[in-house]
Give the backbone structure.
Amino acid sequence: MNIRIVLGLTLLAVSAALPAADKPSANSKGASVAPVLTGPEASIPFANQGGIYDFHVEDELGLWVQARSGQWYYGKFLTPCLGIQFAITLGFVPGGGIGTFDRWSSVVSHQAGKCTLTSLRAAEPPPGAKPKKAPSP
């Protein structure tokens, strides 16, 4: 077989497989739901002491996390976290052992097991997210 054909088929196969990780997720109506990232790598302090207020999972590629301050973040998983979109409760395991939820942290659920993050960045709220209520005095 000609080396050009083999090389061309190899490049075609690789280019078809690579964009799959960066494709936006789709909600139940089939509409594209891609996170709108608004900043560099971030962290949520005191995650082990109530620093995380809410979360939203759209698919197995990542999740939105809301800090107590009201700021939303999008965390991208290292590998697809199969079954996490069916989780009702999640455990947030801080990375580094200092209580901060960041790109080295993990999420745990009964349905999906342990899912490790590779990125945590400030983001626009997920679709349909309700604004955080101000704390009562």
Notes: DSSP finds one helix and nine strands in the chain. Residues 1-32 have pLDDT under 50 and may be disordered. The first helix runs from residue 3 to 17. The radius of gyration is 18 Å.
